[in-house]
Structures are given as C-alpha cells and as structure tokens.
Amino acid sequence: MDDGTSARSRLILSVSDQVQLSPLTRHLESVPGIEVERGAARTAEGEQGAMDVLTVVAGSGGLIAAIKVLPEFLRARRSDVTITVALPDERTITVDVTNVQDAMAVLERLING
Fold it and tell me: What's the domain of life for this entry (predicted)?
C-alpha cells in the first residue's frame, strides 16, 4: 500500500457506460491511500462530445490497490461494461469481464515498472 513516501502518479479511467462512472467512483473511494477526481476528458481537436473520466492519484502501491478493485466492479455489472485505463506514459489498456485477469497482470507490471 502507498506509505506516502513514494512519488504520486495518475491513472485516467474511462468507462464505456457513463452511468457506471458514479458507482466506480464510490468503489474506488473505498481504497485507502488514493484520491479520485471526476472531470471532463480531453478531446482531440475537431472531436465533439464531452465524456467524463476518473483520475486516480496515488503512489504506485495505491495505484495497484485501485486497479485490484476493477475485477470485482466489472463482475458486479449487469451490462458489458469496459474500463479503459490510461497510464502516465500514455499507454492504454481496456479491461472487461472477459480479459480482466490478463489485463490486471499487465497493469501491475506496467505500474511497477
């Protein structure tokens, strides 16, 4: 878990179903040592529409703890929800109930460096 001494990083989470953003926020806020902020996603020039995203801020231990709650969240959804995780280096991984175990392993390796 984040002990407060490690550098803080950010993950950006977007959800395929915007209705699921508030439940995901509550789910993530139960994780100690992280901050969750909701805001508008950046759109590329010429793109229309505003989509909200969650920014998760924590040390690497907190980020690992935050992504570890994603499988439980996805399995509890009634619809086919996907979560796209944008890492600080701008790589993205999309997680859904069908690939959640493999995606979690990849995310942990990427966050730990």
Answer: Bacteria
